[in-house]
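Sorry to interrupt, but I need a hand with the structure work. I would like you to pick a protein and set down its sequence and fold. Please put the record directly below this note.
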Amino acid sequence: MNYITSKFNLLILPITSLLCLPFSAGAANDQINSVALQNPLRVSSLEDLLVALLNIVVVIATPIIIFFIIYSGFMYVTAQGDSGKLTTAKDSLMYAIIGGVIIIGAVAIGEIIGNLVKSFQ
């Protein structure tokens, strides 16, 4: 055997036995410690999860919709009578309002479905 290999083996054996000591000591006890996982989402049902996700979407989408309404107004003011730019500004405003209605509609549909499910319980 090589001198370095034998020294390495003499070093590894005590270290591994020390690392395994807590496992062997724990196995000798009659009590086994149980581990409980905590829910990081703070929701208890699928309905609560969907409501939380919908609230996140509303919080993120509201400033975006407001930004696009303001941006379409800016485009309308800077169009200076150009029919192509006016059409683009009107379309942009229409799409921003449609997006807002979809977001508000999603919240309304979520509330309706939640109340319907609660009424059957």
In short: Helices lie at 3-28, 46-78, 83-120. The chain has a mean pLDDT of 81. The CA atoms of residues 47 and 117 lie 9 Å apart.
